[in-house]
Design goal:
Blueprint: H1 3-14, H2 18-37, E1 42-44, E2 48-55, E3 58-61, E4 68-71, E5 74-81, H3 83-89
Antiparallel strand pairs: 1-2, 2-5, 3-4
Helix pairs in contact: 1-2
Length: 90
Amino acid sequence: MNKNELATAVAEQAKISKADAQAAVDAVFSAITAELKNGGDVRLVGFGNFSVSQRAATTGRNPQTGAEVKIPARTVPKFSAGKGLKEAVN
């Protein structure tokens, strides 16, 4: 399912126009992104948690040449599924 298909499904389930559903989906993604950008986390009970994780700098290898490559430290988004989502999938 892509973003447009998600907006269509939201429109059908909420009985709203597709344009309103698209705006709502965009707003949710923007709000989650903004909170993670500020270093916060988003907890959706029964669905899961979005958070920010720090990756330390490491040394890797180029598989073609075998040369060492320095991989810088970075911040990455992380999602962990909640109990309700895990039970729904299984």
